[in-house]
Amino acid sequence: AANTAAWLAHAGASVTLVAAVGDDAGGRERVAELVEAGVRCDVRHHPGAATGSVVVLSTPDERTMITDRGAALLLAPADVTAAVEAAPGAGHLHLSGYPLLHAGSRPGGLAALAAARSRGLTTSVDAASAAPLRHSGDFLELVRGIDLLLCNADEAEVLAGPGAPERQAAILTSSARNVVVKRGGDGAVWATRDGVSRLVAGVRVPSLDPTGAGDAFAAGLLRAWCSGAEPEAALTAGAALGAAAVQRVGARP
């Protein structure tokens, strides 16, 4: 979510990140970096807990992450509800799937979606990662009714089974009103509950580091879609920002 927030700010959006970090140097430094990038941070610092960390092993085409979520597991319903109430001008809430995939942070993630819906915000969830999805049999029930679900090819296969991305996206519209399946350099597909699928080609560019490309794609897509763009235009905007991300080292602009 932090990467998506940074890319949204880079794209000119007004964005607030709601999160939990440790009361440590790592947490303060990460928050300061985001603030400098233009992200408003509504963050709870938890004494005695370590800020979450990620080790990324990357090649030009693939990346593997080793994650310790640390204080992120302490995301509380009261924190996210208060943050939504403190942002009366907000129009959309985007949630990483990670909070929903861990028992400690799940109540906070569900509270965020509920608070957004009660105030008329549109909602989106990024499926996050195929590995934890394989051990979460109720993920689709947890996100049922959201406006947009984003997943990559591996996540789509876990959630909808093998097959063409158009078929996978169509299956997943039983849980979300709109579904985007990302295919990296092969483009992305957008499906709606009315049975309409839209496909855009990928943007082929030299890749230095794929870390954060999905987050950048989500940011570009959300920036466009929340501004009224049609699905094809939103997908194109997402592909452009994702392409920009893989041409640099690191997950943020």
From TrEMBL:
<dbReference type="GO" id="GO:0016301">
    <property type="term" value="F:kinase activity"/>
</dbReference>
<keyword id="KW-0418">Kinase</keyword>
<dbReference type="InterPro" id="IPR029056">
    <property type="entry name" value="Ribokinase-like"/>
</dbReference>
<comment type="similarity">
    <text>Belongs to the carbohydrate kinase PfkB family.</text>
</comment>
<dbReference type="Pfam" id="PF00294">
    <property type="entry name" value="PfkB"/>
</dbReference>
<keyword id="KW-0808">Transferase</keyword>
<dbReference type="InterPro" id="IPR052700">
    <property type="entry name" value="Carb_kinase_PfkB-like"/>
</dbReference>
<dbReference type="InterPro" id="IPR011611">
    <property type="entry name" value="PfkB_dom"/>
</dbReference>
<protein>
    <submittedName>
        <fullName>Ribokinase</fullName>
    </submittedName>
</protein>
<feature type="domain" description="Carbohydrate kinase PfkB">
    <location>
        <begin position="1"/>
        <end position="252"/>
    </location>
</feature>
<dbReference type="InterPro" id="IPR002173">
    <property type="entry name" value="Carboh/pur_kinase_PfkB_CS"/>
</dbReference>
